[in-house]
Amino acid sequence: MDLVKVKNLSRTFDVSKPWLNRVIERQPKLFLKAVSEVDFDIAERSTYALVGESGSGKSTIGRMLVGLLTPSGGNVEIEGVDLANETDAAKVAAVRADIQMIFQDPYASLNPRWRVRDIIVEPVLARGGETKGLAERLLEQVGLSAEDAGKFPHEFSGGQRQRICIARALSSEPRLIVCDEPTSALDVSVQAQVLNLMSDLKDSFGLTYLLISHDLTVVQHMADRIGVLYLGRLVEEADPDTLFSDPKHPYTQMLLEAAPRLDAFGREVVPPEGEIPNPIDPPTGCAFHPRCPLAVDRCRAERPELREVGTSRAACHLAE
Amino acid sequence: MTEPVLSIRDLSVEIPTRKGIVCPVDSVSYDIAPGEILGVVGESGAGKSMAGNAVIGLLNPPARIAKGEIWLNGTRIDQLSGDAMRRLRGKEIGMVFQDPLTSLNPLLQIGDQLTETMLTHLDISRSEAEKRAIAALQEVGIPGAADRLNSYPHEFSGGMRQRVVIALALCAEPSLIIADEPTTALDVSVQAQIVALLKKLCRERGTAIMLITHDMGVIAEAADRVAVMYAGRLAELGPVREILTSPSHPYTDGLMASTPLASRGKSRLHQIPGSMPRLNAIPDGCAFNPRCPYAADKCRHDPGPQGVEGRAACWFPIVRERTA
Amino acid sequence: MTDTPVPKTAPVRDKSRFAVAMESDFIYAFKRSPVAIISTIVVLTLVLSAVFAPLIATTNPFDPASLNLMNGFTAPMEPNAFTGDTFLLGTDDQGRDVFSTILYGMRISLFVGVAAVLFAMVLGITLGLISGYFGGWTETIIMRTADVQLTFPSILVAMLIFGIAKGITPVEYRDQMAIWVLILAIGLSDWVQFARVVRSATLVEKSKDYVAAARLIGRKPGAIMLRHILPNVLSPVLVIATISLALAIIAEATLSFLGVGAPPTQPSLGTLIRIGQGFLFSGEWWILLFPAVTLLALALSVNLLGDWLRDALNPRLR
After folding, report:
1. Nearest Cα to A285, choosing from A275, A274, A295?
2. Interface contact flag, B260 A158, Cβ < 8 Å
3. Rounded CA separation A5/A39 (Å)
4. Which stretch of DSSP H or E encloses residue C203?
5. Cβ pair C20:A150 closer than 8 A
6. Could C1 and B290 be called an inter-chain contact, meaning their C-beta atoms sit closer than 8 Å?
7. For residue B126, which of A139, A142, B141, C120 sits 20 to 30 Å off, Cα-Cα?
8. A18 Cβ under 8 Å from any chain B Cβ
9. Which chain A residues touch C209 with a CB distance below 8 Å?
10. What are the CA-CA distances from residue B312 to residues B56, B57, B277, B286, B307 (Å)?
11. pLDDT digits (tens, 9 = 90+) for C185-231
12. What pLDDT score does C8 carry?
């Protein structure tokens, strides 16, 4: 069963200069389309990963899912409730209670003036739940000790802080956790601890993850299904084995080729061409065509739709 | 063997704090040969950047060199005055940092920054300097180099900016470039471009590069030799293939095993328990002993041998059958 | 993770906030700074002697019954020619003990200063939080108002407000109201810097993920501003409040000196200086000098403390 259905999701940001500057300099309003017509489903108790480089819109999608941003178009349906259009506030609140988030920077995501106990139980407290002993229990579940509840965040290392964030996310007993680059601020040895912890908790709590990352190795290790984003659009979606052994989209191929590999001593990569274009003014047709080694005229004119290619989905005219 | 470009001997850096003196770099020795990329790898707090800063004389006070020697092309440089060190930076040592904006003056056109640097360090005319500036920008792969001399740093994208920094670092033809996390702030595709560029410079110009990074993948692809640091000490040092495929220090071994790899499938990752100790709480004996699966009593009291080429800083190094 | 095994005994009591604070770099830096220690001592001495003025002062200068006009113009430490009474710091024209008038005057100066800063602080923090958190038109209106106000010298703003308030207060209440009008005037002229600092700090804090974490569980903006953001923007506010306190005390003295502040029936340090300057050239220097020195010591030590606070709380200067 699909816990999350994302349909045609778009988000535009107004990046115009202030009104007065626009009037004086006679400039039009500028819009940045961070996410365009993305759709995917997340099966219950699975891990869906979104990968992409900067400007791909992966974090924006995550923030729309948890309700920190409202979509400009399309919708997000969680547990069968369309969050943007549902009018029954109680229903929305019930669904919202089932969603939590883990952030990238473990230093900024914990209020430095609060004790760990208060941080962890806040999601429960916000709904008026019972919190006695909850923080202590959760701390032990994430591998810290009950005594840590009385400490302040600055007394912990980055990895320990990320565990506290996980404990906070678990406190309201969510079904879906959006993990936005949960380990990219952590060292490799600590990353392994956190990833293992996430896997364990997924099994014991029956969680569903949306994992947002730029790190292909992390995604490959964790995900059941992977969506690759480029300039706000889903360009390919596949299960990890297929994606890594047989990538359909030239962008995915480029990413896999460019990613540094541990076993590639002195490998001579032909580095990819060009850089990510300015998302305010994306290329016509397929956004990847200026960097694509295979691009033909059709790619410059016509934007490819996401279509099924084998067990994958890819947005490329030439994929087969 | 050729004379090394940079030679660090028994270097220690200390910072006096109110709770006593901490030692972010502790008795570290390594050499870099001409045309060689030495990867210095370690997690945050390992002291890898601090060692690099000590070499270029950019330690933030109160941090200071406690003991040891730094030799550059046969000259001892750790006791040079501030002025002499400033002349040396730029001329003999180029620097590339994680954030390209810290090395570029936002108010100066990049052409001016390049020519000024050359005029300061090289005995050439202004027109010659301008010619070389264009050549340097071309060499680092900036399209339309001649037209971009008049651009300001903010007009470049992140990857292009890092290329400009590299051009700036090498324009005075230094024998050593210290690159501190040069690709960390960049996207994967751009990172690959920068790594390829560094390798090319190293090969074509014979510049020695000290590549400081936390990314084992970058080390594997770029470095010839690698120095693994842990808690300020050198855990082990050697040819990159040897260290990464058959590490003899348990820390390197754990680090390699905890990296997710396709070949390992979905099984649980190996994890090293605990985390890098804080500087003011480095354990007695071997700094790694509380996290080490093989730690014995000896490890808890005696720091063990110093890490040098071919010998890990460990009482009980992992011995493997080397597959040729 | 610390790998030390956790003994499963009764829960350890959390370290109190006080204990945590005492171990902080802040207290450490304080102990190392002679300037901070000396100015704290001076401020504390002055504040305590102002608060306990009725216990310390030899006479109550506001009680006409305790005054003896014969004691007028007694020099410090010299017996009066007529009555033989000696006064530590001498007396003024009406025979009021200068030492006592300073203590009582300082009370009024400090009260007006502290109350004005508190008022400016509450107003500034509220408006700063609101404009930083909500942005948009709310922010534009609040911050542009602040900008406009900044273009006038604050003493001018205070005089303007004071003048208006005086104009609309009935004559018989004027003296009673003077102190409160003074507080209002100085406070209103001073909220801008609090609002600016709080707004920019709020912008920084708002973008941090702990605020996002609170938003996504459905915390309301008011709760987020008060419970999450406010505690994290207070350190710069503390610095400004201290420096503002010195400025407010001086502003009050200036207004009183100009005759638009505290009335002679409730003289503040500024009023005392105004009274005293009339006698400077006739040889009764002590009537001016001692209140002036007290004002100087108070303003200077509060200011030094503020400067030190700014350095100590600024992580970039460490």
Report:
1. A295
2. no
3. 8
4. helix C191-206
5. no
6. no
7. B141
8. no
9. 103-105, 108-109
10. 26, 28, 20, 12, 5
11. 889 888 999 999 999 999 999 999 999 999 998 889 999 999 999 99
12. 40
